[in-house]
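Section 3.1: Structural characterization of target chains.
Under the original work plan, the team committed to producing a structural model for every single-chain target entering the pipeline before any wet-lab resources were allocated. The record below documents one such target. The sequence was received from the expression subgroup and is listed exactly as submitted; it comprises 606 residues.
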Amino acid sequence: MYFSSASAGLLLVFAHQNTASPVSTRQISYRYDPYRANAVKDIFQFAWDGYYKNAFPNDELHPISKTFGNSRNGWGASAVDALSTAILMELSQVVNDITKFIPTINYNVTKTSDSVSLFETTIRYLGGMLAGYDLLSGPFEHLAFNDTNVDALLTQSKNLADVLSFAFNTPTGIPDNDLDFTSRTPSLDGSTGPAVLGTLVLEWTRLSDLTGNPIYANLTQKAEEFLLKPVNPAVGEPFPGLIGSEVSIRNGTFLNGEGGWVGGSDSFYEYLIKMWVYDPKRFAVYRDRWIVAADSSIKYLASHPTSRPDITFLAKWRGTNIDPIWQHLGCFAGGNFILGGLVLDAQKYIDFGIKLTAACRETYKSTLTGIGPETFAWAPSTCNGTYDAKPASAKRGMHQNARSKVPTKRQPSSPAKSPFVNTPFSVNRNGPSSPGEQELADAADPCHIPSAQREFYNKNGFYFRDPSYDVRPEVIESYYYAYRATGDKKYQDWAWEAIQAINTTARQGVGFTRITDVNAPGGGGNDDNQESFLFAEVLKYSFLIFSRDGPWQVNYKGEQEEAWVYNTEAHPFKVAANYADRKRVKEGGKKGGKKGGKKGGKEGGK
């Protein structure tokens, strides 16, 4: 099932959007910084050596105890996730070690008793192998020591997808995320979030295009239809293009109307525009849905703290109510808006993305460690500068029956506690966040600022909901996109500040690990676990922002020529259509969109 055209109503939106100011045509020049690029490579090599000596071929390193863990089913997550970064850094020995290992993985058998996450397995393993194949059979083929091992990357990608495909054996085709490899039967009575449904399509479509077998694309695109066209929009789409966070596997209806550019929903919005970058002929509907969501986000979610009206954050929503709370995970949004502005030739999206990126940088520069927190909140401008400092416990009654779903993925290995917050707050990347007591109190009265954080809030425009940091990439990711859109050296400087702070504080033992409090000396305490996305994302974006220009870079040559697109784990895929094709489709959309928009306006009114 390949999408080829948009609905008339959405074409109206696209036609209107293209009346906005185009992206500046000034020539952008990029500054190669070999000193900083090599410093990032050194950090990668240090972390890789610690993993390879103490944990390979297991999933992750425990850098303090020099042991290992297998939270991703024992298939060597850190190795597979590291491959595309090692290729871009041209670390030939690392590349060779990983490509020799991948053909030995047996994806039919999980080495742990844990369920298999369809989402995490797709973005880390499938994404890592497909990106490795595209890079090593393309611009970095000189690093391929063994052609057989390169071919095995595609073969193993197919093997993995074939194993995972039973997840879609449901009445609706909506996949179960938590897979039991013993029964090979998906749950039919649960729900799936947009970040699962909406973050499979790029990887599985790429696999179809490389193998010539359309089944992988068909499975994921059929499931995504429930997000593109909600069955019950009165519940599931409280704002145009902005949807709820749980979809019934059995009947496809939305179970709520709450969400945000946060864990559980985030990468659904991310992939809408990236699918159009991948192939504009097939994915015009995705582009149009991104425009609707982006415009609604600017109109309804952009929020300015009372103490710092110069800052622009993106709030969450519960129905049509706005919750002034955001996550480090959500700070990728700045980069996503910037990418959308570049490929759509719309300056307004770039400008908004720049504002979000600058706001996320404020969460870094304001702390003792120079690193931003996992979750933060603020009093929105509607509070008119008035703060309610009553204890949170006095505000909880109306939310005692609030629904909560226990997260399972991408959460800290133990809940973070801090003198700044009343309760632990857990977050994941593919399921709704569990609202703790403090978050529910914030929702009850968004003007409430914890008294212990009043001074900090007055100065910086946010307060801590979870002050931990799990070596996440999203802020540096947005710095990268901002740099590629503008060529402004300050974004390189911001990225350098961030990677230095991470190297100073999160570097523990023979690797890197989560810290418990970004506003405590030395980061407070620490865990003993190095996530694979350190290799895949943090160090890749940190390297790319300083390295030489190349076709794999966003906005190559500063000419909006996207030859590659990055998945949510920062694995680059070769796009299916070239720049000339995308330009023709874009120009055709401007002409055809106006005609279709008028027609859609009439029909929509009947």
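The radius of gyration is 23 Å.
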